[in-house]
Design goal:
The protein is α/β, with parallel strands linked by helices. Strands 1-2-3-4-5 form a 5-stranded mixed beta sheet, covered by helices on one side. A 5-stranded mixed beta sheet has the order 8-9-10-11-13. It has helices spanning 49-56, 70-73, 89-92, 100-108, 189-200, 219-233, and strands at residues 6-11, 14-18, 27-32, 37-40, 61-64, 83-85, 131-133, 138-140, 145-150, 159-163, 168-172, 179-181, 206-209, 243-245, 250-252. The chain binds zinc ion (ZN) (2 copies). One zinc ion (ZN) binds next to α2.
Amino acid sequence: MENWFLTKQIDENTFVISEPKHWEETNCYLLIGSGKALLIDTGLGISDISAEVRKITDKPIIAVPTHVHWDHIGGLRNFPEFCVHELETDWIDGNFPLSNEFVRKMIVKDNNLTHVINVDNYAVFQGKPSGILKDEDIIDLGNRKIRVFHTPGHSPGHMCFFEEETGYLFTGDLIYKGTLFANYESTDPEKYLESVQKIAKLYVKRIFPAHHSLDISIEMISEVLESITAIKEKGKLCHGSGKFDFKNWSILL
Ligand SMILES: [Zn+2]
Ligand SMILES: [Zn+2]
């Protein structure tokens, strides 16, 4: 599909490929190393992200979703080499816990996409990963090394990716400006907080979220940490507590 993606260059070898026309405004990141390139998240799969990636690099690509939700795994079908976290191998390989019907409703939501796509044909990507990742693994791109941090809470096998050399932290759905989701059955609010505590210890210079605005400061990590800690202290860090609003973001429990 023409002009579905918006690509921006972050530095010489790092790019963001976004889906600004969809309400989720997913951001995928392409990190090019001397040997390989890493694509963090792949969008909805409505348009072929691999064609977009090929305009930028001809290096072999390893595609890694931060977690197995439809808006992150949609483009995997065009990447023979892709990895997921060990706790979500089931979700990618035949046992995604939500029906396609439910996901179609989520995709359309309140913005009218029917002129762009026929959502009736949309199906959550399913396939066999070529590799499995776990906490502290290193994704080696040659001259760039990306560390995996298992950060469950939004989903059981959610991962953040950290490049120590640049201080780049790719936060997936753990931290972004907008509504953070820790309300559905497969989420875990307590683990969500533990994951924020974990990444708050890193020496981060820039954060790159999987959704919405890229204009996001590193202070947001401590802000989210303090706010969720305060929710816990009130005894409200559990499913059913509802929505808590802060300056640039909310969390749904
Ligand atoms: Zn998600
Ligand atoms: Zn998402």
